[in-house]
Amino acid sequence: MSQAGGERSKAMGRSAIACGAALLFALPHAAQAHVRWFTGAAHADTAPESMETLLASLDFLALLVVTLAVLAWVRRADTRLAAGGSSFMRLLADCDARATPAAAPVLRVAVAVFFAAVAVHFGDTSSAWTPEVKSPGDWIVPLKLLIALGLLFPSGVLPACAGMLLLYLHPSHLQGAGQLLDYELFFGVCVFLALDHLSPRQGATTGLLVLRILVAGNFLWVGIERWLYPDWTSEALVQRLPMLQLGLDPAFWTLAAGFVEVGLAFVLLFGRASSQVAAAVMLALMAGTMPMLDAMEAISDLPMLFSLFVLAATRNRMPRAVTEHARWQPANLCRTFLLATMGLTVLYYLAHDFTPVLHAQLTDLWREFPLVGLGGDAPG
């Protein structure tokens, strides 16, 4: 074997090891996308871990360095794939051309099944989306069924999207918006379906971009939440899904899961070919954990699963000036990752501290708002 061939073999071996390690650490995170649902330890008034505690953790710093190294490697791979005009890039382009027209119909059916299922299963509770998102009112179940029905017909898409928006906003009126920051992907689905209905061209460009941004933002937010509330994930891991622990310490497992989630979400947002690969990895891992869930938990993940399916099959609509900038080298990408994660972590602290205060101050104003008449008073 030639020296060049040997070097290529070694490089492929290193890549395989890196991919295997990434999948090993990614597996746990996929089963707990809705960590608030899986644990009884989640309470909105619980104080998050301090930034000092995070930065003083050697495990956190070590995982941060590993994540930055992986991101740098991914950026180099993205650049080489784009420059070479490889068959893989042609495959992705063909997949995008075929999948884009089908994205909205597929997502509409998935979300319709989701709403019909949660309406029937949670009909005797006050859940808006998932069990921990409360929204009392006798109109909730009929609205869910109407949304499900509307999504199945083109003429009903816009009314269904309006109903989805109402279901998204009403719990925030009652409980504060902070809790719903874990679920902005639903808002992304709503925007995408509405834009696609109004203009398929806008849906295929702006709509898919908004969907990608909000799905990535959803995973970024939940990943950071794992760092700041490790007990939530650890409790769910030990009590509900011990088979995923892989012999690791729950605290380390939680940190690693958070980094995998944040890293994949970052690539989903800023990658080129890697953006679709990241979505496919997240989709495969979530689908692989479905046998560990009961039927209702699996159905309730349909919007997330099919959103990832759409993003895996379609190219990143982020402007090329962002994804292909000449200065967008691995070091720049790593710096952006550091700034983004630290900035979002600070934003999480601010949301935790100020959202309840703002909600309390606006309680009297909310009581005058029309949404109040639809069920329940804002808590005083």
Concise structural overview:
The protein has 380 residues and is an all-alpha fold. Helix content is 74%, strand content 0%.
Q: How many domain units?
A: 1
Q: Round the mean pLDDT to the nearest integer and report it.
A: 76
| Alpha carbon gyration radius | 21 Å
| Category by helix and strand content | mainly alpha
The assembly state of the depicted protein chains is: single chain
Largest sheet: none
How would you spell out the order of helices and strands? HHHHHHHHHHHHHHHHH
Subcellular location: Membrane
Pfam family, one: DoxX
InterPro entries: DoxX
Organism: Ramlibacter monticola
Your description of this structure?
By secondary structure, this protein is mainly alpha-helical. The protein has one domain (50-355). 74% of the residues lie in helices and 0% in strands. The chain has helices at 3-30, 35-38, 51-55, 58-84, 87-121, 140-151, 157-175, 184-198, 200-228, 230-240, 250-270, 273-288, 295-300, 302-313, 320-323, 330-361, 363-367. Helix 8 (184-198) packs antiparallel against helix 9 and helix 10 (230-240) crosses helix 11 (250-270). It is globular.
Describe the secondary-structure layout.
Elements: H1 3-30, H2 35-38, H3 51-55, H4 58-84, H5 87-121, H6 140-151, H7 157-175, H8 184-198, H9 200-228, H10 230-240, H11 250-270, H12 273-288, H13 295-300, H14 302-313, H15 320-323, H16 330-361, H17 363-367
List keywords for this structure.
380 residues, 17 helices, single chain, transmembrane, transmembrane helix, DoxX family membrane protein, mainly alpha, membrane, DoxX
